[in-house]
């Protein structure tokens, strides 16, 4: 028996189509009930409960009880980032599910990836930060970090970096965007940026969906704040 992380166990949990649908539904960052997740997976309540127990035991989901209802969320941002990366890999390899409809262009434009922004605009933001040397890549660890200029830029956006640095979550992480197949920004800063955009009225989350609507003013401001050199 080889030592090390057991990716086979995680792969088996995610690989079931019903469980994959449940996990994808929770990518919005919102807590969902058993019945809501059963509907997303296309299975009955008892089958859904069985799947959710396996996902929770495997460390992929968290559960909270309120009254008669049980609410499920992804166990943490790293789970969402893994799922987004798998979506990117599946799209790159041509493993796509056909879903036509008006929401598809909106999902590609801007959407929430657990708690940070994904889609065309998110990739542009990451490209802008990289081009202006606001983030640096460690060649040995493949991890990114804010440069001194990057920290000054973030502070000009009125985002307090102190609590982000004190938290257990990395400030900056790359996350493979499934629609663009390039990186967008995740981590504590990725979440803080989305919150800031919402506070400014530049972005608005659509209820019961991963779609993020960028307002006309927000579009103008984001293009100005995050230019491509």
What structural keywords apply?
229 residues; alpha+beta; Arc Repressor Mutant, subunit A; 2 domains; 3-stranded antiparallel sheet; two-stranded antiparallel ribbon; 11 strands; 49% helix; globular
Summarize the structure.
The chain is α+β, with helices and mostly antiparallel strands and 229 residues long. The chain is built from 11 helices and 11 strands.
From the alpha carbons, calculate the radius of gyration and give it in angstroms. 18 Å
- Quick one: biggest sheet? 3 strands, antiparallel
Structural class: alpha+beta
What is the count of structural domains?
A: 2
> So how many helices?
11
**Strand proportion:** 15-25%
Secondary-structure element order, N to C: HHEHHEEHHEEHEEHHEEHEEH
pLDDT average, as an integer?
A: 85
State the shape.
globular
Span between N and C termini? Answer: 51 Å
Give helix % range. 40-55%
Low-confidence regions = 98-103
Count of beta strands: 11
As laid out across the biggest beta sheet, the strand order is 1-3-2
Set down the secondary structure blueprint:
Elements: H1 7-15, H2 17-25, E1 32-33, H3 34-41, H4 45-57, E2 61-66, E3 69-74, H5 77-92, H6 103-109, E4 111-113, E5 116-118, H7 120-131, E6 135-137, E7 144-146, H8 148-156, H9 161-166, E8 173-176, E9 183-186, H10 187-199, E10 203-205, E11 212-214, H11 216-225
Antiparallel strand pairs: 1-3, 2-3, 4-5, 6-7, 8-9, 10-11
Helix pairs in contact: 2-3, 3-4
């Amino acid at each position: 028996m080889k030592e090390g992380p057991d990716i086979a166990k995680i792969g088996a949990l995610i690989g079931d189509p019903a469980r994959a649908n449940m996990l994808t539904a929770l990518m919005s960052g919102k807590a969902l009930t058993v019945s809501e997740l059963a509907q997303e997976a296309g299975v009955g309540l008892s089958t859904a409960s069985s799947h959710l127990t396996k996902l929770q035991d495997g460390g992929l989901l968290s559960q909270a009880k309120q009254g008669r209802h049980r609410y499920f969320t992804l166990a943490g941002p790293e789970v969402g980032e893994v799922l987004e990366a798998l979506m990117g890999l599946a799209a790159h390899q041509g493993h796509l599910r056909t879903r036509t409809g008006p929401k598809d262009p909106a999902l590609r434009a801007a959407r929430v990836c657990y708690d940070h922004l994904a889609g065309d605009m998110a990739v542009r933001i990451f490209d802008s930060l990289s081009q202006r040397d606001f983030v640096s890549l460690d060649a040995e660890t493949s991890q990114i970090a804010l440069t001194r200029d990057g920290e000054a830029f973030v502070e000009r956006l009125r985002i307090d970096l102190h609590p982000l640095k004190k938290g257990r979550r990395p400030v900056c992480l790359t996350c493979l965007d499934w629609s663009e197949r390039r990186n967008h920004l995740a981590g504590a800063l990725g979440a803080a940026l989305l919150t800031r955009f919402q506070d400014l009225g530049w972005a608005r989350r659509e209820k019961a969906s991963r779609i993020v609507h960028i307002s006309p003013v927000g579009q103008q401001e984001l293009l100005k704040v995050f230019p491509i050199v």
